[in-house]
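Annex B, item 7. Sequence and structure tokens for protein A, then protein B.
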Amino acid sequence: MRRPHPSVACGWEDSLAAILGRRMALEEAGISPVPIVALAGAVLGVAVFSRPILAGVDAVLGWLDDSFARLRTRAAKDAPIALLLLSPALLILGAFGVAPLFAAVYMSLFNLQHGVGPYVGLGNYAKALGSPAFWKSLLVTVYFAFGTVPFAMFMSFIVASLLFRIVRGRGVLRTFYFLPYVTSAVAAAMVWRFIFHPHVGLANEILSWVGIEPKQWLLEPRGLLFFLSGGRIPAGIGPSLALCCVIIFEVWHASGFMIVIFLAGLAAIPKELDEAARIDGANWFQTTRNVTLPILSPTVFFLAVVSVIKAFQSFNGFYALTGNGRGPLDTTQNMTVYIYANFYEYGRWGYGAAVATLLCVGIVGLTLLQWRLVGRRVHYE
């Protein structure tokens, strides 16, 4: 047996003596050396085994890379990789998007009262289609969509066109106009609720400057046409003044997103087309109508589809501005507020699920109708 070198043996003996000496010193001081030894052992173990662990992780990643490379050479090409990368998003969409949709359809077939009730088939759908409250909430939703989408798109396009022609300070102004969209809808609604306050609100203060009597605004169930016609049009025709307040808030809140999208579309238009139109003697209106809008048609179509869907699903502004979503005499109760009230206030889960399913079908049908009628006029080249 080979004996260690004398210097090595002496080195080990000196180290052992030093360790024993330190241990005795710690014990005399009343300090237990066990935690210190355990910590030192853990550090030593990490130092010793970290390299093999990292080598193992590197080997696993290399095996996965080689497996993906072999999959790419097969007939399926990148389909397995794409499915693997999409699986987290598909799981989330399936759990929180598709599954609740099928659950709502299933619940709508039962007369559920707080989660308990018998099977009624299509009875909830027949009850909804025969309910005056359902049709009134649908009418409020239509008023809201027609009041917000066209006006917000028109105003956003005008503002975006003006911002696009500004060279200095465009970024600051773009951020300024985008702030309403990123602001919390509930927090912003509290500010607008104070503006429309019937006693101390800014809106009535402005009306007093021009000699117009104050209005009840969010508390007014009479229609806007009633006030504009001087009472000649019945008060129940058209959107109520309270609903018009919600429309004004939504136009203000949604315009920031539209302005940014329009600015991106305007930046993609070649400058040569605008210059050629000016050389031919076209004014701003002619250039916008014959050059800008045709090229911007995909952007306009996208904003129209998304804005209509959002208008039919709007809830936060209604609930935050009016306090309960329904407003005076239910004149601001749109479809989503009607669904919310049946679910959480009346406990009619089955009926609420049926109304939600009808709303979903209506939005899908309206979107397909937009694709059918407007999509043909979109120029993608």
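Protein B:
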Amino acid sequence: MDDVALRSTSRSARPGLGALLLAALAPVSMLAVVPSGWYPFGPVKWLVVSVLVAAGSALVLRSGEVRLPRSIRVAVTMLLAALAVGAVVGLDPLYAWIGTPERRFGFVTWCLCAAALAAGSALVSPSASGPRQRRPEGDAQEPA
């Protein structure tokens, strides 16, 4: 076999940095704690999750293609549009964009969730995109 073919195959089989950052999300977020802090779990955990999701999603989306079904893309776009309108006309514009200190779910966080959804869809291989369609029994027969 050719050396170049082996290198290109092994390189494409390895996950990229973005995929590794997204894979590290669960274990790192469980380990993120500041014992001496007023809220030992809250702020540092949100910082770690926000940075890993943003960086991992940006790297994955830069190098891959989004494989979201059209209906989900439309639903996410409509949700973000409604949230943007609510943030623009809302009574508290700062919290509408960045979220309240307790819940932290403002427009920016919803955009981060949409980026994570798109990045997750880009990590799925095309062959694993969904259940296989079964042919009806009548289609499998050859015409007589």
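Comment on protein B: The helical segments are 3-13, 17-23, 25-31, 42-63, 70-89, 93-98, 107-123.
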